[in-house]
Amino acid sequence: SSLMKDVSPNYKNVKSRHIFRTVAGLAALLFLVLLFTGCEKKNEKQLPSKVVWDRDLCVECSMALSDRRYAAQVVDHQGKPKMFDDIGCAVNWLKNQTWKDKALVWIQDVNTEKWISANEANWRYGDPNTPMGYGFSATKAEVKNSLSYEIVEEMILNNKTLRSQHLSNHKKSK
Description:
Layout: H1 2-38, E1 72-75, E2 81-84, H2 87-94, E3 104-108, E4 115-117, E5 122-125, E6 136-139, H3 149-157, H4 162-172
Antiparallel strand pairs: 1-2, 1-3, 3-4, 5-6
């Protein structure tokens, strides 16, 4: 009987310590989760992200981004980037997004391979080297008879591209 009195308080003590440790462990885990999710960098300015060349895939056509002269990024209203190998892929993908008017579109400068805003770029049509054959390249440099991004979008959406010309010529030759 005296043995039971000594064991019972210790058993309760062990059990309460176990519960305390479990609760403390869960609280610490919750704290760490909140800390790391709260520290996630926000991209409020909708800047382009770093590309892992030859690894990142185009959201529209699934080709690897490999040609630094023509890559594009659409940064959504939450700051999340979507990668594209060609501006044609970006425009065709973006047209189906409900938030398209809140997105920022970035394009690699064909000359410097630096990111520039698609709206601020001087666009050229007829470049036969673009990855998907749409034929548009962009630069910050002055370009004779340059196009606006709005015109580029319109041409892509209306199939007025080198790609559509090539496909139409291919169909005629059959």
